[in-house]
From TrEMBL:
Record carries keyword Ligase: no
Protein name: LytTR family transcriptional regulator DNA-binding domain-containing protein
Extent of the signal sequence: none
Keyword Repeat: no
All residue ranges annotated as the HTH LytTR-type domain in the record: 140-242
Pfam family of the protein (one): LytTR
Alphabetized InterPro entries for the sequence: CheY-like_superfamily, LytR-like, LytTR_DNA-bd_dom, Sig_transdc_resp-reg_receiver
MF terms (GO), sorted A to Z: DNA binding; phosphorelay response regulator activity
SUPFAM superfamilies: CheY-like
Alphabetic keyword roster: DNA-binding, Phosphoprotein
Residue stretches making up the Response regulatory domain: 2-113
Organism: Hymenobacter qilianensis
Length: 242
């Protein structure tokens, strides 16, 4: 297995690299000290496994995963134990507390080996995988506040830290979901992925104007302006044109 070490602490990366020498089937192919470096390394090296810290300058480990279209297997390595539940919600293989113990590392690697040799899982066919209709209502909870909101009333989904913020009426609740997860449930005829950080409701578009480098800027009704990425600007023109 090819592994990428992602941690802002050089000492932590060095210690983990040393521990991994005891596992000859694991090759450390690179290191990154922040999310930006990690994204580049992942594209270039295509690792099988990420050893990922949570707190890093310029973006957390959760934000890095949310920005990836396809993520390798992940083992979190962190000094904080309060994010364990969140880690498994994003399908992490394991959650190792620093300083990493060799027996815990061995157990985590056993999980990675099992996953890599497991037969492929067939796509789900249950009705739950079908996109929700714009007229469907969804339950939203943020702290002590709850809403039952119609999807057609939601104008924007936007990454905010390790959560996604929902814009409807004057409300801005946070939910523990990634944009990738939301895309599997939202109707693509109504909701459009504008960039790595935002999904917009096409029915809430107020105006569109050309932007830098052949991109687009969209103004939402009673809402913020959204800059569409270059790739998604091309797709938007293709999908929305006659």
């Amino acid at each position: 297995m090819n592994a990428l070490l992602i941690d802002d602490s050089r000492l932590a990366r060095t210690e983990l690299r040393h521990l991994l020498q005891a596992f000859p089937d694991v090759a450390v192919v690179g290191e990154a000290k922040n999310a930006a470096e990690a994204r580049t390394q992942i594209q270039v090296l295509n690792p099988d496994l990420l050893f990922l810290d949570i707190h890093m300058p310029g973006g957390s480990g959760f934000e890095l995963l949310a920005s990836l279209e396809i993520a390798p297997q992940v083992i979190f390595t962190t000094a904080y134990d309060e994010y364990a539940l969140r880690a498994f919600e994003v399908n992490a293989l394991d959650y190792l507390l620093k300083p990493v113990q060799e027996n815990r590392l061995a157990a985590a690697l056993d999980k990675a080996r099992t996953q890599s040799t497991a037969p492929p899982i067939l796509p789900p066919t249950e009705p739950a995988a079908t996109p929700l209709n714009a007229n469907d209502q969804v339950f939203v909870k943020d702290g002590e506040r709850c809403w039952f909101v119609r999807l057609s009333d939601i104008k924007l989904f936007e990454i905010n830290g390790s959560y996604t913020q929902i814009y409807f009426n004057d409300c801005r609740p946070l939910i523990p979901r990634t944009l990738q997860h939301l895309e599997t449930r939202l109707d693509p005829k109504v909701f459009f992925r504008a960039n790595r950080q935002q999904i917009i409701n096409l029915k809430w578009i107020d105006s569109i104007e050309p932007w830098f480098s052949n991109t687009l800027k969209i103004k939402l009704k009673d809402g913020p302006e959204v800059e569409v990425s270059r790739q998604q600007s091309v797709r938007f023109r293709e999908v929305m044109s006659l």
